[in-house]
Amino acid sequence: MQLTKGKVYNVDPDEWMLHGRAEYHSTFSRGCDGMPLHNMIIRMRDGDLEISTFATDNIISEAEEPV
Q1: What is the band of 66 on the pLDDT scale with cuts at 50, 70, 90?
Q2: Rounded distance, CA 24 to CA 6, Å?
């Protein structure tokens, strides 16, 4: 899947996330094996915005509606 900066994607949610969506920001290669990792903006349960890193397998699809 080709990720686009600023678009919102459905991701595998974790207990610290408010919901299972995140806005794509950038990609970098993991140093040990070159695997692509994606920086995404998420909303925490307390309402704060944070950056979190997701592997490609954790990004499910493009979200139909923005968060």
Answers
A1: low
A2: 6
42-55: buried (b, 16+ CB within 10 Å) or exposed (e) per residue?
A: bbeeeeeeeebebe
Query: 65 exposed, middle or buried (CB, 10 Å; 0-12, 13-18, 19+)?
Result: exposed
Q: For 1-10, what is the mean pLDDT?
A: 94
Q: What is the 3-state secondary structure (H, E, C) of the chain?
A: CCCCCCCEEEECCCCCECCCEEEEEEEEECCCCCCEEEEEEEEECCCCEEEEEEEHHHEEEECCCCC
Tell me, what amino acid is at 59?
I
